[in-house]
């Protein structure tokens, strides 16, 4: 399961770099995700289970376990929440300035480095 942690780490580093370099395209990605969001609840659930399964392979077991629990909660939240609440959360993200997306990219890169 160490491979999963490395794969997620590389994905987060690449995604964070994309958020820093292309904040407008990142905002467009969020705009496109709002339509099928209810169908995407399975991704955080799957990622959460994989994080919980991979936590013994990490040197930061507690941190990976917390990430897994957060991902599970996120998947359940997306599934259980009404669509108008989810749309309001997306609208919050879409109204943020470009600098916010760049800071978010730095945070995602740091998260990827810590997990890897």
Looking at this protein, list some descriptive labels.
6 helices; 81% helix; mainly alpha; 116 residues; globular
Main sheet attributes: strand count, strand direction, barrel closure: none
Strand content: under 5%
> How confident is the prediction overall: mean pLDDT?
88
Q: What is the helix tally?
A: 6
Output the radius of gyration: 15 Å
The beta-strand count equals 0
Question: Care to describe what's here?
Answer:
Helix 1 (2-21) packs across helix 2. The mean pLDDT is 88. Helices cover 81% and strands 0% of the residues. The relative contact order is 0.23. It has six helices and no strands.
Summary, kept brief:
The radius of gyration is 15 Å and the shape is globular. The model has no long low-confidence stretch (mean pLDDT 88). It has helices spanning 2-21, 23-33, 42-54, 61-80, 83-94, 98-115.
Give the SSE map:
Blueprint: H1 2-21, H2 23-33, H3 42-54, H4 61-80, H5 83-94, H6 98-115
């Amino acid at each position: 399961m160490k491979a999963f942690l490395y794969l997620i780490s590389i994905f987060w580093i690449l995604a964070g770099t994309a958020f820093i370099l292309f904040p407008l395209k990142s905002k467009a990605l969020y705009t496109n995700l709002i339509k099928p969001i209810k169908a995407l609840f399975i991704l955080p659930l799957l990622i959460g289970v994989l994080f919980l399964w991979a936590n013994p392979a990490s040197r930061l077991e507690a941190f990976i376990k917390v990430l897994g629990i957060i991902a599970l909660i996120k998947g359940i939240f997306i599934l259980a929440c009404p669509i108008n609440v989810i749309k309001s959360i997306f609208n919050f993200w879409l109204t943020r300035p470009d600098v916010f997306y760049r800071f978010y990219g730095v945070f995602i890169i740091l998260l990827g480095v810590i997990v890897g």
